[in-house]
Structures are given as C-alpha cells and as structure tokens.
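Predict the assembly for these two chains.
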Amino acid sequence: GESVGLHLPTLSVQEGDNSIINCAYSNSASDYFIWYKQESGKGPQFIIDIRSNMDKRQGQRVTVLLNKTVKHLSLQIAATQPGDSAVYFCAELGTDSWGKFQFGAGTQVVVTP
Amino acid sequence: DGGITQSPKYLFRKEGQNVTLSCEQNLNHDAMYWYRQDPGQGLRLIYYSQIVNDFQKGDIAEGYSVSREKKESFPLTVTSAQKNPTAFYLCASSMFDRTGYGYTFGSGTRLTVV
C-alpha cells in the first residue's frame, strides 16, 4: 500500500541553528499535508499545514515546503530552541480519503546547547 | 475551552483482563479515531467513527472494541484477546469533511500489562 515515510529517525541540532525534517510520500492522490509535533508522553500538536496547490507556507519560525514532482515534504524550523525537542510527524490526506490521515513514523529532534 | 480529554493517563492491565479507555470531546466534531503508538512506529489506526452509532475497523482492530453512543464520546475497550496491549493510545477527533484542519488529539493513555 502507499505510505508516508521519513528519511531520518533522529536529528541532532545545535541550539540556534535551523532544523530541516524531511518526509517522503507515495500517494499521488494526497492533496493535504500536516506537520505535527509530539513531546514525550503527550499527544501530537498541529504545527502547520499545506495544500497541494501551494509550494510553500510559513508560520512562526516554521516553514513547510512541498515538492509534488518528487513527492517530498519538509519542515524547516528557524533558530531551533530547546523547546523544539520532540518527535515530528508528517501526515497526508488523499483525495480518495474522506478524512483518514496517514502518518509517518516520525523524526526525533534533539536540540543540544 | 474546547478540547479532547483522555482518561486515565496511565492504566495497568492484568493478563486476561478487559480495560476501557475513555475519550471525550466538546469540539462538536463528527469523526473520532483511536490510534495505537509503539516506539519507533507511526500511528496505527484501531477504529474510527464518522457518526453516532456507527464505527469501522482500522488497520489493527483485532482484540479491541469500541462504541459511539454519543457524539462526544468514543471509548475503547482493550480485550483479553489483544495479546500485546502495552502501548500508548491516542484518541483524536475531526470534522467529517475536508475543511482540512486535521485532527485534534488527546493527551494519550499509556497502557501497561502487569
């Protein structure tokens, strides 16, 4: 079946540097994507989303890039802070899906001083 | 404030025992979901419900049961048939359309077999 996956399971970043988290998806019918942040022992929290008619979307310190040609999604975090340490998931929603998202396994981001 | 509440936060189950995890939302969301999360793995769908009194199996429904008697509530029962229930369980809700605001998640229940 088609799936969402991540390239790197763990990303170590120095405080103040920028982080880039990648996600590959294979469902060409996906038209909506979300990045979630999950801190240890807590539920995932919405960070930012993007629709397939966009290539880039910016939030506060975060930017999501979508490359539909190669089916790739990335999350950029500017000036990474200790509070950014968490697991980050990408999720996709296909046009053939009424509302069930498919989730990637996640990337653990560790911010070092 | 609107939100989704899971209880308890920690739950211990003895071998052969059924346990029920609670999930309540006051967001007026149509759809509710239960996911299981194991270390190093993505979220796996157990059951979901689009409307009251209706629910469907997800990818790993064996050993679990649910009910949806009220729009606000979607409890999950982990039965003795589930041989490896130790995991972190997440409940989520969403509008039953494609407005695209994704899921709102609860804070999770960590279930441990003792």
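Chain A touches chain B through 24 residues (CB under 8 Å). The mean pLDDT of chain A is 88.
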